[in-house]
Sequence to fold (368 residues):
Amino acid sequence: MSTPALLRSFAGSLLFATLACHAAPIARPAETGARGTLLLIGGGLDDDHGEVYRRLLELASAKGTPRIVIMTAATGPQEQEAIDKTEALRCWSSDVQVEIVRRETSTEDTVAAIDAATALFFTGGDQERITARYRRDGAETEELLAMQRLLARGGVIAGASAGDAMMGATMFTGGGSASALGIVDPETQPGPRLAQGLGFLPLALTDSHFFERDRLGRLVAGLEASGTRLGLGVGEDACLEIDLAHGTARGVSVAESLLVDAAGLERDGLSRRGLRARLIGQGEVVSLRERLASPRPMSSPRPPGPPHEVPIVEPGQNRQLASWRLFRHARTASSGVWRLALQGWAIEAWAHPDEPGEFVVEVAVASR
Fold:
């Protein structure tokens, strides 16, 4: 193994040794099985995104009146966000009961609110504020155990932006794709910035604002460093519903999300090859559990000929959604490679001929 590979291996081992060394957990409740539902919302959720709010309220009202607790720990201006999300929920349901839990809400009041709830909604901001409040020093706090009880009784935990990012056992804490891939930036340390999440989703690593902030490189580097096979990149306005009992992901919104399978990942310098991916659109269901149980997926040779370059026009949505357009082209095109050139790195993708809807992805970094 080369020296860089040894260093990467050591860094990954060190990360997970750090994540594993926590204070002794509080005794778990009797039932914390894989049940309940997660809603991963990539950010930018406006009040008029009815398909997302309606699904949250439908799930929250499965056993009667929806009782939703808005968790504002991640957000800077908590009061503004509390008012905004309360009004948004009331636009879509006249009988919803809403309670606000802030960073400074006491443990006793927080646990009581969660135990009475049918759903939680974590607002956006900084995901490290969430873990600092509810998983202090890696311990399973009383609040976190109450959240686990909510899922165990079939409840819902939704999260937007930072609330999406903290769902897994491991979460991103910041940084962009270039630095995560190891491209040297004088102001940042190379490599993905990872920490322990709240652990609601053991099946995948999640990321938010995915297409708009070109986070494929960051997600791939995070999967590699954490030893996680599956990644879920959720775009703005997008929502994925995770059924924990069945291990499935379903698209809720018109806006799409991306599943990345890193089982076949191979390194070539700073480039990563052998990745598989698929878009998850509204109503589409993917079994994460079956994917994890399946063998390494077969790759597909790169089609001949020069790639089709995906153009970027700045500013505006064309710039923000360029990587989504690349994946959409790769899904629908009958042949050819699609390429998006970014700052110091590029994405290349082509349709897999034997797997409809799937494509092969490479993250290319120029040799230095």
Q: What stands out?
A: Confidence is low (pLDDT under 50) at residues 1-32.
